[in-house]
Amino acid sequence: MSVEPTADPLTPLGPRYHGTEPVEAANTPRPAVLIVEDEPNIRELVCLHLGLENYECVPCGDGESALKLARSRRFDLVILDVMLPGLDGVTVCRAIRRESENPDVPVLMLTARREESDKVVGLESGADDYLTKPFGVRELVARVRALLRRGPRPLVSSGTTKEAAKAITYKHVEMDPARRRVRVGNTDVELTTNEFQLLYVLLASPGIVFSREALLSRVWKDDTFVTVRSVDTLIKRLRKKIERSPADPEIILTVWGAGYKAEDV
What we know:
Elements: E1 16-18, E2 21-23, E3 32-36, H1 40-52, E4 56-60, H2 63-72, E5 77-81, H3 89-98, E6 107-111, H4 116-124, E7 129-132, H5 137-150, E8 168-170, E9 173-176, E10 181-184, E11 187-188, H6 193-204, H7 212-219, H8 228-242, E12 252-255, E13 259-262
Parallel strand pairs: 3-4, 3-5, 5-6, 6-7
Antiparallel strand pairs: 1-2, 8-9, 9-10, 10-11, 12-13
Helix pairs in contact: 2-3, 6-8, 7-8
């Protein structure tokens, strides 16, 4: 895929029209998009077309550099290739969610893999959407617009903001939503975004029974490919990470015929 840039995508553009939709004037603050792609032609193509949409594009070719950028400034969107030299995209996405200035930024993953399992891994690492290569430019722009309209993702499923989300101490588990940190005993435990959100929902309301459908709507929200069985799978993974004995849980309890709850305290 070759591209001959006809304009510098980082240069502020005046009012433009793309199709029938007006693009805002250059004096309006432009959404900043971090584009992490190791193939120069694809990176230039994405920058070019998003520049024409009046987005500020910050290109990057490897995972380590991307993580440094994500730790140094705020972005409105991250476009992240899965297969990167050094740190892969899944690792970078998890690190952005856990330890950067952009824990809530929408992430669009680019992947050359078409298997559903690969897409699920990307989404569970904290990505909000994925696009399979080769992709059409119009579809890319449409996905970017949709993610930017959606805005920052909630740091916890209950809908609280980063400032309002309260830290939770429950038995031997500590959760800090502002830092997206979980400690079990004296050990930091790494959770995926969905694992974190599911655990927060349960621990924030100990004793309250949540049906699988309720957890599905709170954690996965508008993702249509998941089923109630995804909740069971996530619970099993969580128990392995936080329970002293996953086979005999004392934190996340199954309420037969109803759903799950955190044990009453």
